[in-house]
Write a structure and sequence with these properties.
- By secondary structure, this protein is α/β, with parallel strands linked by helices.
- It contains 13 helices and 13 strands.
- The strands form four sheets. It has a four-stranded parallel β-sheet.
- Helix 2 links the parallel strand 1 and strand 2.
- It is globular and about 55 Å long.
């Protein structure tokens, strides 16, 4: 069976209802990118759990929002690592802190995760210091174990973070990721896996190495750091989407590219579907801080507004899946929806 046929079958299978992608796990309720966060997300009905992947000094994939772990671990409280603090330029921006590529996996395992947004999510900060930094291998094992015990398939949706930067320091991601997923039994379009990236050439290299479905991420502004395309706006045109469809299964646009707050929707979903691409926007969050004005509850940025209403609008618009920090709300809204995805 060819890759195209497998991808066509996978597309047909996933048209029945939008998939719920747990963004960094149930990150609205637990510190992100921890086994606890992923496990809760699965219990709450997520179809996929999403690890952002970075590499250690000894070339092991771990899940962190960034390779800069200053804000997501207790590394600054470890005197034995005080001399590891660095200032680096990553994707054109200067960062000062501690970075995964300067630590072995064994060293990272001595650290503990902490909440990245404590001002918006103070309840999450109560879990600071309890959880390790997980490896990709541990996340794969969790998904497989939970699939077995729950009786439903739990997929993973990894993002390659800063692949050009890691390649520049001698830690290329593509072959290693394809090989690790293949060792797990996942190498074709019907595997319960999506690989996503904001870069273009990274995905094109992966397209040559694996049949796993690929998702081109897009921001509302700017462009990919590898300069393969001038801007995400250009990528989101009908011609740009046709080019994306040559190597990717779908797109992961910022939700603002579909609806800018309370504005009317753009044509992006329809244009992507015409190009044969699925659409998985990001990121749906419950706090007022992240919601459009019409869905806020009061003025406190921490208060939870009407996230379910926001998700329901995008489902009605025709999205094929969505990233959310609150997978239970996402799953319940999806299940209650009378608007299945467009073919």
């Amino acid at each position: 069976m060819g890759v195209t046929t497998m991808q066509d079958k996978a597309m047909a299978k996933d048209r029945s209802a939008p998939i719920v992608i747990a963004h960094r796990g149930a990150s609205g309720l637990r510190p992100e990118h921890t086994i606890a966060s992923y496990t809760l997300a699965i219990a709450q009905g997520a179809d996929f759990i999403e690890p952002d992947l970075v590499l250690t000094r000894d070339n092991v994939f771990v899940a962190r929002h960034e390779n800069d772990i200053t804000g997501t671990t207790d590394v600054a409280a470890h005197p034995e690592f005080v001399d590891r603090k660095r200032t680096k330029v990553i994707d054109g921006e200067s960062h000062s802190g501690w970075f995964t590529e300067d630590f072995t996996l064994a060293e990272l395992k001595t650290l503990r995760a902490k909440e990245r947004l404590p001002q918006l999510r103070p309840d999450n900060a109560k879990f600071d210091g309890q959880f390790e930094v997980p490896t990709l291998a541990e996340i794969i094992a969790l998904a497989k174990a939970q699939s077995k015990t729950s009786g439903r398939t739990i997929g993973i949706y990894p993002e390659t973070k800063h692949p050009s930067y890691f390649a520049s320091i001698g830690l290329p991601m593509e072959e290693k990721l394809a090989a690790e997923l293949k060792a797990a039994g996942w190498s074709s379009a019907d595997a319960p896996v999506f690989i996503q990236s904001f870069e273009v050439d990274n995905l094109k290299r992966l397209h040559k190495l694996t049949g796993i479905r690929l998702i081109q991420l897009m921001e509302a502004a700017g462009g990919p750091v590898d300069k393969a395309v001038a801007s995400y706006a250009e990528m989101a045109t009908p011609a740009g989407l046709k080019a994306v469809a040559a190597y990717a299964y779908g797109i992961g646009p910022s939700k603002a590219m579909i609806r800018n707050g309370d504005a009317a929707p753009s044509s992006l979903i329809a244009d992507a579907h015409r190009a044969g691409l699925r659409v998985h926007p990001w990121t749906f969050r419950a706090e007022n801080f992240f919601l459009p004005p019409s869905l806020k509850d009061g003025v406190n940025p921490v208060t939870h507004g009407r996230l379910s209403d926001e998700i329901a609008v995008y489902i009605k618009d025709g999205v094929d899946g969505f990233f959310t920090d609150f997978p239970q709300i996402g799953a319940e809204t999806r299940d209650a929806s009378k608007h299945p995805r467009q073919p």
